[in-house]
Design a protein that fits this description.
The chain is mostly helical and about 240 residues long. It contains 13 helices and no strands. The relative contact order is 0.16.
């Protein structure tokens, strides 16, 4: 991988996004608005503190998956990707350039949602705020990496959205947000244990509930980061110049 080419790709993506303010608003503002909505729907600080940490990971994961998969597919169908790959640029250069660009947006997105939750919504965090931000950003990067990966198998934007029930919704249902993973049947518990979002939600719960950094937390972070990296590598292996 050539770092200069990856940085050039990241600058190109950010320049395009700068001319698309609606997408930027969706990426940065919508998660914060959803957290505000959740606070007033629950109408209880205790319930909000029990639910909000997990959603700080789920919302960025979902939004980055949608935006990244559609953006990558649009570049392929418009022949932009085909023109880029005629140049001396590798697949990993392209994908890591996307990762840098959307990773920067993920930092803004998670930082805004966390700041609103802490300053105005009375979210109680016993651990490090910076560690919570790191976990949430890793979660957003995981959604971005999966979006890059599945875009290789879609021919239209509608097909890219159809992948969401396959790659995203099962993770949200089984991550422990709606029911404790320990209370699930053995099949569902096994599925939950192999899905990376479960470890991100578990890590967010550990950070908000305790200031201790233990081996379980480190394991959760490594699993999420490793899955995001694996999805990027698989995306590079399946990257095609254009959609037939």
């Amino acid at each position: 991988m050539n770092p200069a080419l990856a940085l050039a790709t990241a600058r190109r993506i950010l320049t395009q996004l700068r001319h698309d303010p609606r997408t930027v608003v969706m990426l940065v503002v919508v998660p914060s608005l959803l957290m505000v909505l959740l606070r007033y729907v629950l109408a209880s600080p205790r319930l909000f503190n029990a639910t909000a940490p997990a959603l700080l990971g789920v919302f960025p994961f979902l939004i980055m998956f949608l935006v990244t998969s559609i953006t990558t597919l649009r570049e392929r169908t418009s022949a932009t990707l085909e023109r880029l790959m005629t140049m001396p640029i590798g697949r990993l250069d392209l994908l890591f350039g996307y990762a840098l660009a959307f990773g920067g947006l993920a930092v803004l997105q998670v930082g805004a949602a966390t700041g609103v939750s802490l300053a105005w919504l009375d979210l109680d965090i016993r651990g490090s705020v910076w560690l919570l931000l790191l976990i949430a950003v890793l979660d957003a990067l995981l959604g971005m990496a999966l979006g890059l990966f599945v875009s290789a198998f879609a021919r239209t934007e509608f097909q890219a959205i159809q992948f969401m029930p396959v790659f995203v919704l099962p993770q949200i249902l089984l991550c422990g947000l709606f029911a404790a993973r320990e209370s699930m049947g053995w099949v569902l518990r096994w599925l939950s244990n192999v899905l990376p979002l479960s470890y991100a939600v578990e890590a967010l719960g550990r950070v908000t509930g305790s200031s201790t950094v233990d081996l379980a937390l480190v394991r959760d972070l490594l699993v999420v980061a490793g899955c995001a990296l694996l999805a990027l590598v698989l995306g590079a292996a399946t990257l095609r110049r254009r959609t037939p």
